[in-house]
């Protein structure tokens, strides 16, 4: 096929209509007819027909001279975004976070008394155990688990702690139900959790809850680090702000999709 040629099925008018929509951006929220024609390489007559069609459909508004998109154009992306599962929504943001901080990051959900890894962007191994999507750990000894447990009603927290196997995985593991209750109350107040070498010696981790459009906690995102290279204070000062910003972007996408579907990618939500 010659360079620049299109398949027989190609609808060039549809391509041109999309080009008119893409002519508007953050730097050019309003354009005149002539500007749209120039940006899209259309004649003024063709640009006018496309703009007036978009106006009739409610995707463009005009004062007679300037044209601008309406919020209705968000519908064009809604079906695409709403088909995404929570891990698919989160992964690009986790990738951006990992690039910024050069540490691994994961999205986890609560499944019974465990946390389950639903999405993960690694940099290098810092735990003895190999972590993949679907890996599980006891919720009460992980930062993501404590963030998720802290959002539960006090009565449910008591029930879960009463049946939890509070064994010392390291010398730092909290094995007192009362101390765990106190820690979960603190996590609830401050909005994040830092766990210092309770799951594994040499491992520190910080986590933040992820809320859906209704404000319900549906997951948590963490960043684990080497204790030898990162103090608790440096985790709080240097990593937590990036983590909070990442979660804010994930939550913004969740508000658009309206739901957090298929969070665990096939892992069960009950035990």
From TrEMBL:
Keywords assigned: DNA-binding, Transcription, Transcription regulation
UniProt keyword annotation of Transcription present: yes
PANTHER family in the cross-refs: HELIX-TURN-HELIX TRANSCRIPTIONAL REGULATOR, ICLR FAMILY (PTHR30136), TRANSCRIPTIONAL REGULATOR (PTHR30136:SF34)
Signal peptide span: none
Residue ranges constituting the HTH iclR-type domain according to the UniProt record: 11-71
Membrane-spanning segments: none
Residue ranges of every copy of the IclR-ED domain listed in the record: 72-256
NCBIfam families per record: pcaR_pcaU
Pfam families reported in the protein's UniProt record: HTH_IclR (PF09339), IclR_C (PF01614)
Keyword check for Transcription: yes
Protein name as it appears in the record: Helix-turn-helix domain-containing protein
Provenance organism: Streptomyces tauricus
């Amino acid at each position: 096929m010659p360079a620049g040629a299109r398949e027989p099925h190609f609808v060039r008018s549809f391509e041109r209509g999309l080009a008119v929509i893409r002519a508007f951006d953050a730097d050019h929220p309003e354009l005149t007819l002539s500007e749209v024609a120039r940006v899209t390489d259309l004649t003024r007559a063709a640009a006018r027909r496309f703009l007036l069609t978009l106006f009739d459909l409610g995707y463009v508004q005009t004062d007679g001279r300037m044209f601008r998109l309406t919020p209705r154009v968000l519908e064009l992306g809604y079906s695409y975004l709403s088909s995404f599962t929570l891990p698919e929504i989160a992964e690009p943001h986790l990738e951006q976070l990992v690039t910024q901080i050069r540490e691994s990051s994961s999205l986890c959900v609560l499944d019974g008394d465990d946390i389950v890894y639903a999405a993960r962007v690694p940099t290098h191994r810092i735990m003895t155990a190999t972590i993949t999507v679907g890996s599980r750990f006891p919720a009460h000894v992980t930062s993501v688990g404590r963030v998720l447990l802290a959002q539960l009603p006090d009565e449910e927290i008591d029930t879960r702690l009463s049946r939890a196997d509070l064994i010392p995985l390291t010398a730092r593991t909290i094995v007192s139900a009362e101390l765990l209750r106190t820690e979960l109350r603190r996590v609830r107040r401050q909005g994040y959790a830092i766990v210092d070498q309770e799951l594994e010696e040499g491992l520190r981790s910080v986590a933040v809850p992820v809320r859906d459009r209704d404000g319900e906690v549906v997951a948590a995102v963490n960043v684990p680090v080497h204790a030898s290279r990162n103090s608790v204070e440096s985790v709080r000062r240097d990593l937590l702000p990036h983590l909070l910003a990442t979660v804010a972007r994930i939550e913004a996408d969740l508000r658009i999709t309206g739901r957090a579907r298929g969070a665990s990618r096939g892992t069960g939500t009950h035990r």
